[in-house]
Design a protein that fits this description.
Elements lengths: L7 H27 L14 H7 L1 H12 L5 H4 L14 H22 L11 H17 L5 H8 L4 H38 L3
Helix pairs in contact: 1-5, 2-3, 3-8, 5-6, 6-8
Length: about 200
């Protein structure tokens, strides 16, 4: 997405990429440790999403929310205009935040690979919190700090349209709060479902 208050499609791509890379590393580790146990088989030459859907359906659903849910798709599309373009998200701050998110995600999956019992899930809470914090910084660094002011200025002479945009902006702020919570939910659900697969 090259327009809008948040360049959030790029953020979603970063989240999905880091998550699926981490999951593939987890499956590889488990396969090596268990001699390719039935639950942990996922070919490195095939897409991992079908395996996720079958063996960890609630995690698959949580991951899908970032791509398909109304709050993170339809709503931000409403902020698009023909003349408004946000700033370049691929700056040093964004790249650094994306790297920190990828590292936090990798750390989470490394810790998860070392656990075997479902009752050990709470020991991963610090790593889950770290991923959520990194995701929060990633979304904030994806925002053009002057974007909101330019969007509002563009419609200053149209009070009705301006009021509608302000309502949409408030809704986007709420949806970002939801997104940060959904990020935590995604990793908590991953913990529960992965540990339930056992060795």
């Amino acid at each position: 997405m090259s327009k809008g208050d948040h360049v959030f499609n790029n953020v979603v791509s970063k989240l999905r990429g880091a998550f699926l890379d981490g999951l593939r590393a987890l499956l590889t580790t488990k396969r090596e440790r268990t001699g390719a146990g039935a639950h942990w088989v996922a070919s490195k030459h095939q897409p991992i999403e079908p395996w996720l859907l079958v063996h960890m359906p609630r995690t698959s659903d949580a991951l899908g929310h970032f791509t398909f849910h109304h709050e993170l798709v339809t709503l931000r599309e409403k902020l698009q205009t023909s003349t408004y373009v946000g700033g370049d998200v691929n700056n040093a701050s964004y790249s650094s935040a994306a790297q920190r998110f990828a590292e936090a995600t990798a750390t989470y999956f490394e810790r998860l690979a070392a656990l075997y019992r479902p009752d050990a899930a709470n020991s991963l809470l610090p790593e889950v919190a770290g991923v959520r914090r990194a995701f929060l910084h990633l979304t904030r660094s994806a925002e053009d700090p002057n974007a909101r002011a330019r969007l509002l200025a563009e419609h200053r002479a149209q009070p009705a349209r301006l009021a509608a945009i302000e309502r949409d902006l408030a809704a986007v702020d709420q949806s970002l709060d939801w997104a940060w919570a959904r990020c935590e939910y995604l990793f908590r659900m991953t913990t529960v479902e992965a540990l339930s697969l056992g060795r």
